[in-house]
Input
Amino acid sequence: MPRKKDFWELADSTILGRTKKNELLQIARSEHQQVEAYRAQVESQAKQFEAENQLLTHLRSQLDKEGEVHRQVLEDLLETFDEQQHNHEQELDRLQSEAKEWEKVAQDYEDVIVTQRSAMKELISLRERIKLFAQMTPLQAGQAFAKWLFGSKADEASEYCSNCNGVIAAPEYRFCPHCGSDRQSFRAAQKA
Output
C-alpha cells in the first residue's frame, strides 16, 4: 500500500495535472478556435481573391471583346472610307474625261460655226457679185468676171480683139475665141 504522503502527493499531482490539463485543453481549444477563425478568414479572403480574379478576368475579356469590336468597327469604317474615296476618284476621272469630250464637241461646233459663217460670207459675196454682173453689159460682166477670177493680173493678161472687141483672157491664145481673128496681126497693127 502506498503511503499517505504519497497518496496526497499523487492526489495533488493528479489534481494539478487535471487542472493543468484543463488549462492546456482550454488553451488548445482557444488556439484551435483562433486557428479555425484564421482558416475561415483565409478561406474568405481566398474566395474574395478568387472572385476578384474572376471579375478581373471577365473585365479583361469584356475589354478585349470591346476592343476587338471597336477595332473591327474602325477597320470597317476605314475600308468603307477607302472604298468611297476610290469610287469618288473614279467618278472624278469619269467626269473629267466627259468634260474633255464635251470640250472637244464644243470646239468642233465652234469650228463648224466658223466654217459655216465663212461659207455664208462667201455665198453672200458671190450673190452680190452675181447681182452686179447681172446689171452690167455682157462685155463689162465678162471683164469684171475675169478681173474677179484672176485678180489684178486680169487686166495685164486680158486683151481686146480688134475685130470684135471681145476679151481675150489668156495671152497664150493666138486666135480670138469669139471671132477667130489672128492676134499676131492685131498686135502688129497696134505697134504700127
